[in-house]
């Protein structure tokens, strides 16, 4: 055996073995062949056995975790469903959801349980002891692992206690005037661009620009300079691209994750400075002008009993997480709002009738919370556009420990478990003709839509439910209301108009091609 284990060029088979082997052959073997070196063949054979063993283990582990769940009987070695995940489609997701209330897939040996039903989705969202949000694999690298969105327990509660105060009616009253003036400023630009070039233009990035401008001014007010806001806006698309469900996981130079981290560093530099300036302004006794100011002022209140030692960095991380939610989810809702109104002129006519009546024919009146309160049809339009095309179709969670999600299945620890929002929002038993854009379904308090609030998962559920629901819906409503008063727009259909581009959120695949022109004063 010593001769076999010697990997030098003198290694050969033992003589007795060689004789037995050669005598068994029906032809004569030249003596020189009996003493050829075997290191390469031995290494290849050993490697092949190891690889084969690992593949067998991989398949066995996958099948053990999968149990009786619907899903592929065998997973593609190593990569699993990676190819499908790189360019996901709604059709692909719908096929997976249709396979069962719970189903299994594997991507790069990450075992994933997909939850299609409302009951399972809500159970995941409301089981913080068993599952916590992980968003996507790259999220912690980009948003940073100690960002409040990933915290649980008391640490998360400490943040949420003060952040809830930033979206009260009092706070929203500060934001609404900012939102109104910025939307008007951007619409003037849109119309000027349309006058120079009347061809249809995709609004995906112009709407994102409007949202980023609005968000930075609402969150940071005068504490961030104009050139800094432009720099953050220009670089933020890298963050969106890197937060796709599946991405190359390592932050090597040139990768999407690397570019997103660099964009985050730029944003954080300015956001930390804004937090520091806000603290100085509030200490000087100035009135709050933005979210940061409202946060600092709340911590100064003698009635506030929560944590008061938030650092500039911690405040910057929160604002950056708000930017992610507002820039991607809110932009998706806004773009589809424009598309749905253009494709449904009778709905747009009702929106305009309500605007004319509430504003008494004066399009120049700035929007207020009190005016928005008098616009139930507009609110129904926003609620319906977010239902038909929910910006976020699912939010990945990770099982912190074995998660008994049903009577006969337990999600293995460290597995991803992903609740679907889309199915709850398109349940025909709750929303008849679920793909139809029908705002009227929200106007009848006895409608199945209003009687089943459990199904409206646009903003999630449980301890990590979106904290800015009122802000997001108010912004979309305000922008669409001002647009309806100030502009006419036509949706130019393309073969991709009804197809969905899935990045971090949903967008029309063609970017929503619109033609704008000024609306005559009545």
UniProtKB/TrEMBL annotation:
Alphabetical list of InterPro entries matching this protein: Cyt_P450, Cyt_P450_CS, Cyt_P450_E_grp-I, Cyt_P450_sf
GO molecular function list: heme binding; iron ion binding; monooxygenase activity; oxidoreductase activity, acting on paired donors, with incorporation or reduction of molecular oxygen
Binding positions (heme): 466
Transmembrane segments: 40-57, 97-116
Cofactor: heme
Superkingdom per UniProt: Eukaryota
PANTHER family the UniProt entry points to: C-22 STEROL DESATURASE ERG5, CYTOCHROME P450 26
Recorded family membership: Belongs to the cytochrome P450 family.
Protein name (record): Cytochrome P450
Organism: Rickenella mellea
Higher taxonomy: Eukaryota, Fungi, Dikarya, Basidiomycota, Agaricomycotina
